[in-house]
Design brief:
With about 280 residues, this protein is an alpha/beta fold. The protein is built from 9 helices and 10 strands. The N terminus is likely disordered.
């Protein structure tokens, strides 16, 4: 969809990245199309990397969904958060500030067609700049939100840097974390203010997106949740976990393609950046 054709401004935009996963992004777009109030929403797709298939087929399928969307193509793979912010900046070149901005993965399903309607008709405190839903992991039978109730200490960050500098140790750390979550996160908790929300799906106010758009996260992926939380903390704004909203997380299909060495490398990069920037 060309931007020159569609000058409409939207109450909420949902930005996602595409990295050789056109089928998954299209499945998410189908989910998006089933939402009530979809005419007030817009899907933004940032193409970090196309697969070798014919991209025209993907675009034709999107057109047939009858949703509002734009596709933006940077010159290289910007990573997760920087890709999302590129999408926001590109949208803002020709459109006014939206009320809310969803930044999300595409390996997700909405529990019902009322998700965005419920969100947009809920009144949040003015100092709430980040809202996250209940996120149920089908694969692990656990809930992924809230991500963190309290902020990491410097000691906690250093411990994680130490672990991820050693991929063999990081491998077992992943397994232990998964086991811990299965034991402690089986039940959905009640709505509350939190330090950090899960990065697979979060909703920020337009004014917060304006603050973020000219910043750069110094890692390709991982640690985005902490980065968002630290900036909010500096501005004395809050993150709110809203249990009335629910999505299902089917699994990190893009990150699953990475081996433990690559994952560890990106973790170390992001944690070092966060430590230098905010601690």
């Amino acid at each position: 969809m060309e931007e020159s054709i569609n000058k409409k401004n939207y109450k909420l935009i949902n930005i996602v990245t595409l990295y050789e996963n056109e089928d998954e992004v299209l499945t998410y777009a189908v989910e998006f199309s089933k939402q009530l109030m979809v005419d007030k929403l817009c899907l933004i797709i940032v193409v970090n990397k196309q697969s070798k298939r014919d991209f025209d087929d993907f675009e034709n399928a999107l057109r047939n969904l009858n949703i509002n969307y734009f596709i933006y193509k940077p010159n290289n793979n910007l990573g997760y958060l920087n890709g999302l912010l590129f999408g926001y900046k590109s949208y803002r070149n020709k459109h006014s500030i939206p009320q809310w901005v969803v930044m999300s993965n595409t390996d997700l399903k909405f529990k019902d067609s009322h998700f965005f309607e419920t969100f947009l008709t809920t009144k949040y405190e003015d100092n709430v700049w980040n809202v996250g839903p209940s996120i149920y992991s089908e694969k692990n039978n656990t809930y992924e939100n809230p991500y963190l109730i309290k902020r990491y200490s410097v000691k906690g960050l250093n411990r994680r840097i130490f672990i991820f500098q050693r991929p063999k140790i990081a491998h077992y750390y992943y397994k232990l974390s998964l086991l811990k979550n299965k034991l402690t996160k089986k039940k959905k908790i009640e709505s509350r203010y939190v330090y950090s929300l899960h990065g697979s799906f979060f909703i920020i106010r337009g004014e917060f997106a304006e603050l973020l758009k000219n910043k750069k996260f110094n890692s390709l992926m991982y640690g985005e949740e902490l980065y968002i939380s630290e900036i909010l903390r500096n501005y004395r704004k809050k993150s709110y976990y809203d249990s009335q909203l629910e999505i299902v997380h089917e699994g990190s299909t893009v990150t699953n393609k990475l081996d433990i060495e690559k994952k560890s490398k990106y973790h170390v990069e992001s944690l070092r950046f966060l430590k230098d920037e905010f601690y």
